[in-house]
Every structure is written in C-alpha cells, then in structure tokens.
C-alpha cells in the first residue's frame, strides 16, 4: 500500500478500536455482560491487580462477580486514548475513571490506566488482553 | 463506492460528529446559547427526563433556563463516544459528566448518557435529537 | 488534492493530534518529563495563569516544579477535543480535569480548558503553544 493508503487504513482501525473501548464501558455499566464478553477474543485475558480472568467463561464470571448487582455498577469513563494499530493487532493505552452515583450525586471511586492489546478477528476488532493498573496513593 | 472508500467516508463523518459533540459542551459551558442552538437542526429535539424542547426557539429557552446564570454553569464532559454514521444520518451513544466548580474545587453534579441522532444538512452535521438519560441511584 | 483526499488527510492529522494530547497526559502523570517536553516544539510555549514557560528548558523546569514529586501528581484527563488541522498547523480546544488520589479514592482538583496550537515538524505533530484556562468560581 502507498503511505497515504496505509495511514488511512490506520485511521479506520483507530476509530474502530475507539468504538470497541467505548462499548466496553457502555455494556459493563448496563450490566450487559454477554455483550461485554463478546468484545473480547475467545482467549481474551483481563488482569486487575493480582486477579486474572482468561477466556470468555472466566471473564463472564469475573464481571458478574464485580459488577453483577446494580449497586456495584456506575460509569466507566475512558480518556486519553493512544491507539496504535499495526496490521491485524493494535495496542492502546488510555486512562479511566469509575464513578458511582449516590443520593448526593456521582462519586469518584477509582482511577487508573488501561493497557490493551486488540486483535482483528474476521474483520472485527476484539480485546485480546486488558491490564488494569489503578492509581495508587503516593 | 468501494469498501475502503466507504470506510474512509465514515471516518471523516465520525470525526466531524465528534467535533460537533465537543462544541456542544464548549458552547454550553461558555454560555454561547446562540452557538449551541445552531448545532441543532431547525427541528432539533432535546429531551431531559420528562422535559422536551422542540425546535431552536424552545431549545434556546431551555438552555437559557437551565444554564443561563454563570452559577448554573460548569463543565459538560463527554466520553466513550460510539458514533455510527449511515449516509447522511448518524447515531451516537456517549456518556457524560457535569461538574461545577466551588471554593473547594470542582464537584461532580451529574452523570449520564447521551443518545443522539445527527443529520447532515448542507454538508454540516447537526444534532437532530439528543436524549439525556441520567444515572440513577440503584 | 481532491476534496475527499483533503478530508482524509485532515482525519489522519486529527487522530495524530489526539494521540499527542493523550501522550501529554500519560507522560505528565508518569513523571516522564523528558518525554513530555519532547511533545513540544523546541520553541514551545506553555501558559498557566500568569506563568509562562518558553522553550524546552523552561518547560522542563516548570513541569518538574509543579509535578515533580509523586504527591503532586495524579491524572490529567482530556475531553471534548475539537481539533482543526490546517496544513502543517492545527488548533485544538479541549477540556481537562486533574484529579489526585487519596486514601478515600480519587479527588477532583482542577478543571479547565486547553487552547492549543500544534505544528508538524519533520512529519511529527508537536505542541507549539498550550494555554491553560482554569474554571473559576462564578
């Protein structure tokens, strides 16, 4: 491909990856865990501190355990997306905030960074690995 | 159009829609209500709970009523944009947070989701409908 | 260039600028000040209220002074990006929030707007000027 064609293909991929990461938040916060897990590759990995879920069955169990009850849920917000596509794979670094709502309005609960690897499978970008690194008290 | 050309046209539209939604926040928070209302189609609809504004005169009155005084204003922040262009229309789902500032720093006031329909009119993307769904205490 | 080719070039530039602004936040929050300052042009300008840093040596001193200790740092989050490329320059308006973490979770500290000018130098977009305007109590 010419350089301009390569750059344009990267743009298309970058926006597609942005949308996948947006849907991750929407589906998680809606409690749509089947839809959430479908955003991962079948062998997808999710790590959170010392916990790891590997494959869709473990991912489903993880999200149902941590976000299953409405009072566990809130809003996951993703920012500062730096997506780097490379053929049929992509890496993304972004920041996130998780808030819950309360009788007094929304309350910040967590902030951290997502380190993601994505893979194009049958023309669809899916999350192959997400590592969550929470911001710690210095 | 070829598939690649279609995908590229969709990229251009997706970024243009992202900019419209960014300007919505900027103009609202700046109190530029004429500019804000200009981002809507002439028959634009905005719903917020059980309130509906229909057309630019009602939109202007709505925003002046809810955001008219400086102490009513703050920052509208938009995240997790999932924009799906389809010819001269587009749908977008995103999350939002509204914060106000205080003597003690910024304070979260609201969080919710925007469900948007946009339309291309004379080459410009405009908001044809925005439904605001606030996050509720579970 | 044809109109479609121009629009596509603008898309590529817009996404490249978005990535630069994302990396600004990542590097600042990671305390990678050499990497942060490298995102600016050699004559880059940064203003924050009545303080101005001009050129990489002053930029480095500014960031080391305000973000040098881990307890000064947190997360810079950027939203509502409205990037307008124009040849080898671009303007961007965006909103930002800065939060720090505490034993009780993340705490909002600042919110404001970034007014940026970027320049393409040797094929790389760099920040030529960033003016930070904080949200004030009305």
Automatic annotation (TrEMBL), chains A, B, C:
InterPro entries associated with the record: NTF2-like_dom_sf, SnoaL-like
CDD domains assigned to the protein according to its UniProt record, in alphabetical order: NTF2_like
SnoaL-like domain residues: 13-131
Gene3D superfamilies reported for this sequence: 3.10.450.50
Keywords for this protein: Isomerase
One GO molecular-function entry: isomerase activity
Listed SUPFAM superfamilies: NTF2-like
Descriptive protein name: Ketosteroid isomerase homolog
Annotated source species: Parafrankia irregularis
Lineage: Bacteria, Bacillati, Actinomycetota, Actinomycetes, Frankiales
């Amino acid at each position: 491909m010419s350089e301009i064609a390569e750059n344009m293909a990267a743009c298309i991929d970058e926006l597609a990856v942005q949308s996948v990461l947006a849907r991750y938040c929407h589906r998680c916060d809606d409690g749509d865990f089947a839809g959430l897990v479908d955003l991962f590759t079948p062998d997808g990995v999710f790590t959170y501190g010392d916990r790891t879920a590997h494959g869709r069955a473990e991912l489903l169990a993880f999200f149902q355990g941590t976000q299953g009850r409405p009072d566990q849920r809130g809003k996951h917000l993703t920012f500062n997306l730096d997506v780097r596509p490379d053929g049929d794979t992509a890496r993304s670094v972004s920041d996130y905030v998780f808030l819950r709502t309360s009788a007094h309005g929304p309350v910040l609960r967590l902030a951290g960074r997502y380190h993601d690897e994505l893979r194009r499978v049958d023309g669809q970008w899916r999350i192959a690995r997400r590592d969550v690194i929470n911001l710690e008290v210095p």
